[in-house]
Amino acid sequence: MIVRPYLAKRVTGRALAAVLVVLCLGCTRRVPEAPLVAVTSLRSFPPEPASGDTESVYIGGALSFDLVDGLLVVPDQRQTKIHLFSVDGEYLRSFGRYGFGPGELDVITFLRADPDGEGFWVVSNVGNMLIHLTLAYEYLGGFRLPFSGTASFLPLTGGRIVMTCEEGAAQGSLVCLDHNGELVWRASPPLEIAGSRGFLPIVNGSFVCQVGGEIWQVYATFNIIRVFSPEGELRREFRPQDRFLEEEHAANVERHIDFNRGVRNKQGMLVAARRILLSARGGADRGYLVTMPRQTAPGVEGNTVSIFVVAADGEVLTRFFLAPAPGAVFDIVPLGDHDAFRAALLIKVGLSPDQIHIVGVAR
User: Fold this and answer.
1) What's the whole-model pTM score?
2) d(CA 112, CA 73)
3) Per-residue pLDDT at 2 exceeds 70
């Protein structure tokens, strides 16, 4: 049985009174707050090219990146290239060829390392092609996806691919394909939130990552994590219990209810639930959830980027924060363990070229 503490239904009369009593009884329960630890940007790269500079390497329009054989591999939408950097920030080389044939690239977006050590996978051609390449730009295979709207994907050992998509369910599906693109399983149980009518449109989608031997589907808007087996069985779902995340979740539930009721703000506009998380990544025994840069850490002026470290049982171990926020973090690659935390962050700032920041615990 899956317990969903965030479900809500319309109630009246005695039922409403009963609900209020239950809520009051729970008012004394204090939602835990994760330890707050500052991190700092140790270095960033590549440098932004000067005006008129057409020779320097820059990153344009990346949505994700990964660590492959010790190198940071970054897809570049604007130049249709794959860039390779060392974790120390040294630019090594780029490769890629525009086109629609085997190994050719067009509008490359999401990239993940192959867990069997066979290079990496990249989504190309506006999310309709999945291509398997080596760091030497050798084409290992690929296929056209049977749907559009890929939001996130995760290669598993043995050649299987798990990904989120929007086909067949408004709230998004989780599907598993084999190395030829054939469907292995699909998991799309309804996600119920207060005020939803039927399927809930999940604002800005969800991420998929692996923690230990389980698959996490992390919803960006309502701070909900669904845990699946590698065979697609829904095992449990939870919300990481942290006071800040709970406050953001509660505010989004209210926005979602108001949106469904047609409530408008002072400017006469409907206000939908806003994204809480901008990226998520799994590790051997924990997950890493990265927030939007609008939040402010206690006692810190200005926007911050927060990285919540979540154990496999849902406990929030630590909240790392980077302040001031250099931009929006579109992806994270953990580089060190919890006690010596280091991570590479893919950061966007407006229309400027993207940068990678190596961050670590402030000393």
Assistant:
1) 0.85
2) 9
3) no
